[in-house]
Amino acid sequence: MTPPDDRNGPAEHAGGGPGEPPPARIAHSDVGAYALGLLDGAEAAAFEEHLAGCERCQGELDGMLALRDVLAEARGDGVRDDAAGAVRDDAPPAAVRDEAAADGLFARPRPELLDRLLDGAARRRRADRLRRVLVAAAAVLLVGGGGAALGALGGGDDGGTGGRTTEAASVRAMFREGEQHRATDPGTEVDATVSLLRKPWGTYVTLRIGNLRGPRECDLVVVGLDGERRTVGSWSVPKYGYGIEGTRWNEPLYITGGAGLTPDRIDRFEVRTLDGERLASVPL
Hints:
2 domains; alpha+beta; 33% helix; Immunoglobulin-like; 8 helices; six-stranded antiparallel β-sheet; globular; four-stranded antiparallel β-sheet
């Protein structure tokens, strides 16, 4: 277990007088345990008191809740109608069950505490925070060979293949739904296709890439019409690679992420190694 982050000293829950249980010791690192619902009733109540006055923990928790919503959207779980996370009546039963499972993974703060989290500085930083969450989501949803690697959530193996197969199917469905642009690099022979879905905040991007050999580390970069470059996501390629025809590794890799530019402001996408080698360029 990772030791608590005590650089600023642990915060203590008030109480612990005669006849009362000792106060729960709360550290900044408890935000992850709280979000995952791992704290018991007393610990959760103590952490919520700490959370009300700690901007650092508020920002971390808000980011985790936003990440849950991004993952839910990527699975196609239906549209949330309100802050309580309701699913529209026309959502299929499977989506309702998936939504309940997602809610079970993250603790939901009390309504009055959630209101505080969305006020003040957190609201002013909302757009920038969403961009960072979408970049994180690109690292989360790496789908290849029929499975999803949920590394950013600390696992992704539910003891079977059902959850991963559902995740993979959702990403492929979003890929088919978007506007697709494809290119094969004449030098590297890497085959890359980007699928774009316009959103109010920019563009939801799904990359399908094949004939990509490893080991190497890569990133997907969006280049705007003004020349501005932004990283959509990064990933590692194992030595056997992805989408290699004639081998057991013939399935392409699917990667999802978000760009803060709308499609009409995008010139191209580039797949590069982290040391700067361009593997593919996909113009729009």
